[in-house]
Amino acid sequence: PKCCSVLVLKWADRTDSIAFNCSCHYPPRASRMRSPRSFLAAVSGHLAGRQAPAAPGHHSLPVRTLQTLAQREPVRLKKLSAPDTGILELTLERPEVKNAISWELMTRLRGAIHKIEADATAKVVLVASSGPGVFCAGADLKERRHMSSSHVKEYANSLRSTFSYFEALSIPTIAVIEGAALGGGLELALSCDLRICGENATLGLPETGLAIIPGAGGTQRLPRITGRSRAKELIFTGRRCDATEAVLMGLANYCVPAGEAYGKALELAREMTKKGPLGVRMAKKAIDQGMEVADMRSALAVEGECYEQLLHTQDRLEGLAAFADKREPVYTGE
């Protein structure tokens, strides 16, 4: 009808529409907002105080659904432009809940990792938070309260495999930690190659305080980084450490003034993008795979295999030519 505004939502299997009577439930046509996000925000705000009646044959959506539609994506992947070509930013976008890892955030994170893996131009990934004062506070415990034991198991298995997927990326990954990195948040950081902390950072695995254990790789990655005894202390007690202590125990690579962790991470990423991309990838593979074998002899064999893969590349020849010519090399990844 001419007196109604209709919001049409197209889904994969159906189309829903919500009708609002212009005379009493929504502003006149001349004053309507054009931005979809503004539209949804206004509608959800109005409905919070008064539920609009749906027109016959129309499906009504609850206020929470409308608010969800208006929210930002929980994970954002951005490719930096020149002169930082090759650097990708993976940003957690749930600052209102300290980037708590919900099912949706985990799903979006896995999707972003898949895009990174498929991007042949990607050289380094920075993992950061959009909100000040927190990297990631861990699992979304409010969401978990409503899960059955089987769903919790599925969540933990999915999160563990997601972080392993991220760890297995062939390019360097750097966690930018400002504020709290706790539980699953620290486990995400542990799956990165480097961790850069602002001096306000707080790191810890508090799961034993909830009568559980770190379930997304913390019991395995932390001792490989800090040593077995130190990892046991931190996990058994659930104690949190600051950025200075994290550097001393090898948990973090750098501690910088609060607010400057991103700048330091970007500085390191820029240094990495100047190097031969194939060489960097093979160096990561040699280190990671070599650390997992039983003895030094097997580890050196891994190194030898990775080295051999670089012998017939154009980048290796370019590196030698640039050294002889006393100029900066121009690597193409071939």
Structural features, described:
Residues 1-6, 8-61 and 63-70 have low confidence and may be disordered. This protein is globular. The termini are far apart. It folds into two domains: 75-272, 2-enoyl-CoA Hydratase, Chain A, domain 1, CATH 3.90.226; 275-325, Lyase 2-enoyl-coa Hydratase, Chain  A, domain 2 (Orthogonal Bundle), CATH 1.10.12. The strands form three sheets. Strands 3-4-5-7-9-12 form a six-stranded mixed beta sheet, with helices on both faces. A four-stranded mixed beta sheet has the order 6-8-10-11. The chain has a two-stranded antiparallel sheet with strand order 1-2. The chain has 13 helices and twelve strands. Helix 1 (36-49) packs antiparallel against helix 2 (63-70), helix 3 packs parallel to helix 5 and helix 6 crosses helix 7. It is an alpha/beta fold and 334 residues long. It comes from Aegilops tauschii subsp. strangulata (Goatgrass). InterPro entries: ClpP/crotonase-like_dom_sf (IPR029045), Enoyl-CoA_hyd/isom_CS (IPR018376), Enoyl-CoA_hydra/iso (IPR001753), Enoyl-CoA_hydra_C (IPR014748). This is Enoyl-CoA hydratase. One of its GO terms (molecular function) is hydro-lyase activity.
